[in-house]
Write a structure and sequence with these properties.
Layout: H1 2-20, E1 27-28, E2 38-39, H2 51-58, H3 62-69, H4 77-90, H5 96-103, E3 108-113, H6 119-134, E4 138-143, H7 148-160, E5 165-169, H8 175-184, E6 188-191, E7 196-197, E8 200-201, E9 204-207, H9 209-222, E10 228-231, H10 238-253, E11 263-264, H11 270-283, E12 289-292, H12 295-308, E13 317-319, E14 336-338, H13 341-362, H14 372-378, H15 380-386, E15 391-394, E16 397-399
Length: 405
């Protein structure tokens, strides 16, 4: 077509211009960018527009362009406007790496979860990302597959990338390793994990798991159940330990002896729940109800009951935890404890951003002292402001459905 011929001729002419070093100063060339964009002399050998191109276009120094890009002072409004117009006209995009070196910020956050396949963490991630995006941050989502060694590797990688902060969900690290992580990153907010650091808690958003265990157990006790088992989740899980504590307290309050043989640890997925339920129900056939670490474990229990010929809820009442969307879709629908998962993410990243701002306001000239805990302890006033809101505790809500009416 005529258009294809014209474009072919234009490309040939540009190659000749480039070889001769005589490309016109302001050639409109769709080949190098958006149709109608302007290509300056200095950008003719590359597709990427640089800060030098912008400076040359406006007739100012690169330092002036840098100040505009990084929103620093000492630039007149008229010059700032001319630079911004040139940036828009040329399609200049600042280098994130270079800007990070200049501002000591990369505009990135890390979000570390133990299992991206678990719907619980998908909703937490949505809350984190929504707030982070609104505040101008990008989020690296990292999966650890419930493996502490992989978790350490992931956190080390995020440190190398110089993320501005990390939201760490349901960490499987022991206290010593977790403390090392907290000390080595500029800002950390924990989800479903508590850690005391130097006599004060690290920023955390927690669920009241003891209350959750109490709600689950009280519901079953009021329905007449006395032989209640518990699939309590992974070894060392803070959430699992809290829920078992609430379970035990309510049993004792109703005069029912606590029997450790009725409590069994298990992985947090449906397959692990199915296997654990088969084992526990075979060992403790008198059980009439089973509490579960989460809804996925409860789905595994439903599978085990089907295979073993036990009807739910007639032969065995089943209670989950989290209220993921699947809980209302299985048959029978799960009675469960609802956790505000999106709110967990929102509040965690809010705590994290508060730490980042604290570092900026207290130690602006010391990149080696970016830890918000160090900054807070150097100023009594700052310490006092952070202390009361350091930990947020969210309350679960019992949702009664067909699996344990």
């Amino acid at each position: 077509s005529r258009y294809q011929t014209l474009r072919s001729n234009l490309r040939r002419n540009v190659k000749i211009w480039l070889q001769k070093g005589s490309l016109p100063n302001r050639v409109k060339l769709a080949q190098f960018g958006k149709p109608g964009s302007l290509l300056s002399d200095s950008a003719r050998s590359t597709d990427r527009v640089t800060m030098a191109d912008v400076a040359r276009e406006v007739g100012v120094s690169m330092m002036t362009v840098s100040r505009v890009v990084n929103e620093k002072g000492d630039v007149s409004p008229a010059t700032r406007q001319r630079v911004l117009e040139a940036i828009e006209r040329l399609g200049y995009r600042p280098s994130g790496i270079a800007r990070g070196l200049a501002t000591r910020h990369t505009g990135t956050l890390g979000l570390v979860v133990p299992d991206v396949a678990n719907p619980f963490f998908a909703e937490v991630a949505r809350g984190v990302e929504h707030v982070a995006y609104a505040e101008g941050y990008n989020v690296f989502l990292c999966n650890t597959d419930e493996d502490p060694e992989r978790e350490l590797d992931v956190l080390g990688s995020l440190e190398e990338k110089r993320v501005d902060g990390i939201v760490l969900c349901s960490s499987r690290l022991d206290a010593a390793d977790l403390q090392m992580v907290v000390d080595s990153h500029p800002a950390v907010a924990l989800v479903n994990r508590h850690l005391n650091s130097g006599g004060r808690g690290v920023a955390a958003v927690l669920v009241d798991d003891v209350m959750g265990g109490q709600l689950m157990t009280s519901h079953l006790l009021r329905r007449g159940h006395r032989a209640i088992g518990f699939l309590s989740g992974p070894e060392g899980s803070r959430s699992g330990l809290g829920r078992v504590k609430g379970y035990r307290e309510r049993l004792e309050a109703f005069g029912v002896p606590y029997d450790s043989r009725r409590v069994l640890k298990c992985g947090p997925m449906a397959e692990a729940g199915q296997e654990a339920a088969r084992h526990l129900l075979s060992a403790q056939p008198e059980l009439t109800a089973l509490l579960c670490y989460n809804d996925l474990v409860a789905v595994g229990v439903l599978r085990a009951c089907s295979a073993m010929g036990r009807r739910v809820p007639d032969d065995l009442a089943v209670v989950g935890f989290d209220d993921i969307p699947l809980a209302a879709l299985v048959t029978p629908a799960l009675t469960t404890c609802r956790i505000p998962r999106y709110e967990l993410g929102v509040k965690a990243v809010a705590l994290l951003l508060a730490q980042i701002r604290m570092v900026d306001s207290t130690e602006p000239s010391m990149p080696e002292a970016r830890s918000w805990r160090a900054a807070a302890t150097t100023e009594a006033g700052a310490h006092a402001k952070l202390e009361p809101s350091n930990t947020i505790l969210l309350q679960p809500e019992l949702v009664i459905r067909a699996s344990a009416p």
